[in-house]
Please model this.
Amino acid sequence: MKARDESALRQLMDEYGDMLLRTACLLLRDRQSAEEAVQDTFIQAYAKIGQLHEPARLRSWLIAITVNRCRMKQRTWSWRSIFPAAESGRWAEAAGEAAAGAEELFMAEWYSGKISDAIGDLDYMYRECLTLYYFHEMSIREIASQLKTRENTVKSRLARGRQLLRLILEKEDIDNG
Model:
């Protein structure tokens, strides 16, 4: 990709596109905004590939760009704030029609279940930490580095996010029970 080979960009999009889209959907709660964020991610990655000095960190670098794009989308006002998309924020569609391996089946079930809906009800800072920790299996240190914050802040957000998630799920069980 450093040689500006478009086929390398396509390969990168094929390899990481679904994972980045799922991440953006979890963070933004809107498929269209998530698609835009991922598209922006690949455009920026293509333009700034020279800044990536360690090819082994490509996945982490792409996630960082995606998280930053999602943050930017959260900050900018949009007509979608007034007219939400017809989709209710279900992320099962974001999982795509991938091959039905064990991980894909688990993730599809997770996305289509109550947990993803409950995560969508959380404030962005909690969604961000929970997504990076559980979905991307990043360590607290990696998340702190990614978000440019202290490890204790990440721990607090994870703890508070889990607590809020539990309350949402318990309330839903009571309402449906």
About this structure: The radius of gyration is 17 Å. The chain is about 70% helix and 0% strand. The helical segments are 6-28, 31-47, 58-75, 102-112, 114-120, 124-135, 140-147, 151-176. The chain has a mean pLDDT of 79.
